[in-house]
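sorry to bug you again but im stuck and you know this stuff better than me. what follows is a protein written twice so to speak, once as letters and once as structure tokens for the fold. mainly i need to know what kind of three dimensional shape the backbone takes. anything you notice is useful, everything is just below:
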Amino acid sequence: MKLTHIALWTNDLERLREFYVTWFGGRSNEKYINPTKGFASYFVSFPGGASLEIMQREDITQKGNKETLGLTHIAFQMDSREQVNELVARFRQAGYTVAGAPRFTGDGFYEGSILDPDGNLVELVSFPDVEISRALFYPYDLLLLADPEKEKVDAYLQESECFVAASKEAIVGVVVVKLLSETSAEIMNIAVSEAFQRRGIARTLLRYIADKWAPAHQVSTLVIRTGTSAPGPFMLYQQEGYDLTEVDYNYFVRHYKEPIIEDGVPCKHQLILEKKLS
């Protein structure tokens, strides 16, 4: 189960659509119009799968000016504190209202907030930093989230390097990388604790391998494999510059003893992606 969208009423459909497309990289569908009800809407979708439904109706024209129970703000995740600072500064320069200057919150997040053209509160959030280091022991609870057969994990761990991401001394993520040749390597396993997912940790681990580990080993090509039943990782890998090069049909059916089910979808085929490093 996952959240699919949040809906907003507006008096200026085109203005609000353009705001979220321009500032947050949203992708808009074609306008839906129901003339009988005096209704029109757009869906603006964002990386990760969530969407905003922006709606307008002739009989809805007023907005309350006080906080009430219910929806209070929308939040977008940034990659870093620096990105939060930069975007808040750009909003300020463009004339938008900065409702909250960038700061650390009591729960450890770094965030700033602005008002969209309709006065809706939008938070720009960066999750707590993690420290990446070589694993002193193998965190099997995480490794088995990505690869459920321990025998297979043990086999490639013997020929690989394992790194962990720690937050406040707790291990919250892991990545395993293996040299394939003098110039290529494969990310064999990447996983994040369920309580810390959707906080950019997997992206941070991928960038550690691409930006630090690979240059130190003269690696110019990275390979990663994923299943067709998990669209989230596939989207992340593409965002990080990995291109689909091959599909191994029924790989997981042939090579795993037990069926792998993700969100009710059987994992059958393996997608093979590559990233060329400059």
